[in-house]
Design a protein that fits this description.
about 375 residues; alpha/beta; Purple Acid Phosphatase, chain A, domain 2; 7-stranded mixed sheet; globular
């Protein structure tokens, strides 16, 4: 393509894409109260990252002098979850699917993460095999005062699921007229003497019997597997009814995919995993949710139930685009997205030009109509 033609195309592109026509990517600055029975906000794979990080820039875009904005960090995480609770009130469910701590955490570092999680007020937190390893030297008889779940690790002496330090095998949560049951399974094979890992399928079958007796409407499974299943980042909601169009890509013999083939039909309604890989889609007809972790993204799911049967309404239940935990926005785009590694969307070059033309003006980030505080006060102080 010669230079003249390229110049014309760039001119045409800049005419079509004005600040008013740019759509936010992975941000929701305004509150649009789309009624739902349940709004899920989900984190995973924090790995002890309590400080903000620079936003990632796509290698496929020429950024030149465009500065990165900060994402994540304890202040932002606390604020995004707090705002979700304030906006959605009794219809919000805050979950974390595990891997809270970095490898080789000190006791002080562990306490800071625990302090943050207590202040956020999660409804349930998965205890992963890596979390167990990091906590083991320090736990003693402490009760962490966090709703840690671990379902398929059995205390041989007592012949029952492990219950220690406030850890419980499952949780039933009442939200409005509905009951949500949450299970967490791990694939860890080596434990301390006196403990063993029960087959996750057997665990699910046992707990589902309890859920049926207690008339649980929705079952959420948190699964600790080294899965490499992936999806592209999504910009528009994916309806549960369209699961065939949005299947995840998995390598042969992937442990998560192999596990799902063994699950009894209709056992679980949603699976949350903790690998730091973007995966928002379906395996068979089961929604699978995880993000790249480290507090950078929060996954979102909107669930609606059929009033009479109390089963999931597949037409009105959605995997939503994740939220990037921006500390501030570019004023011209009302987000902080600059691509991610090799991932970028069409029209992004036009977005970059608009950011440049605005002289990179920044404004405080907002979520659901409320400002993300930029105070230097740390949540874990």
């Amino acid at each position: 393509m010669n230079i003249g033609v390229l110049s014309v195309l760039l001119l045409i592109t800049s005419c079509f894409f004005t600040p008013s026509s740019i759509k936010q990517i992975f941000s929701e600055p305004e509150f649009k109260n789309q009624k739902a029975n349940l709004n899920l906000l989900i984190s995973n794979g924090l790995s002890g990252k309590l400080a903000p990080q620079e936003s990632i820039k796509s290698s496929k875009i020429n950024f030149k002098d465009i500065p990165s904005l900060l994402i994540g960090g304890e202040k932002a995480l606390y604020s995004y979850f707090k705002i979700a609770k304030e906006r959605y009130k009794d219809s919000v469910l805050l979950l974390d699917s595990g891997d809270l701590f970095k490898t080789g955490s000190s006791e002080i570092e562990i306490q800071k993460v625990i302090s943050l999680y207590k202040k956020i007020g999660f409804d349930a937190v998965a205890l992963s095999r890596r979390d167990i390893k990091e906590l083991s030297p320090f736990v003693g008889e402490k009760n962490f005062e966090i709703p840690f779940l671990l379902s398929n690790v059995v205390d041989i002496k007592k012949m029952r699921p492990l219950k220690k330090n406030g850890v419980i095998p499952y949780k039933i949560i009442n939200k409005g007229p509905f009951k949500i049951g949450i299970i967490n399974i791990t694939s860890m094979k080596r434990f301390r003497p006196g403990l063993y890992m029960e087959d996750p399928i057997l665990t699910i079958i046992k707990i589902k019997k309890v859920f049926r007796k207690k008339k649980v409407d929705i079952t959420i499974l948190m699964a600790d597997f080294d899965s490499k299943c992936i999806s592209t980042l999504i910009q528009i909601p994916k309806a549960f009814k369209d699961f065939k169009k949005h299947q995840l890509k998995c390598p042969p013999n992937d442990p998560l995919y192999t596990f799902i083939k063994r699950i009894p039909p209709t056992s679980v309604d949603l699976i949350l995993t903790n690998n730091k890989i973007q995966a928002q889609g379906f395996l068979k007809n089961i929604p699978i949710i995880q993000t790249s972790g480290e507090g950078k993204y929060l996954a979102r799911v909107r669930l609606n139930l059929e009033p009479q049967s109390k089963k999931l309404d597949l037409k009105r239940s959605f995997i939503l685009p994740p939220i990037l935990t921006c500390n501030s926005f570019f004023n011209s785009t009302k987000d902080c997205y600059l691509g991610e590694g090799e991932t970028y969307f069409s029209k992004e070059n036009a977005r970059i030009e608009i950011i440049r033309k605005s002289s990179y003006k920044k404004i405080p980030a907002t979520y659901l109509g409320k400002t993300i505080p930029v105070s230097d006060n740390l949540v874990t102080n």
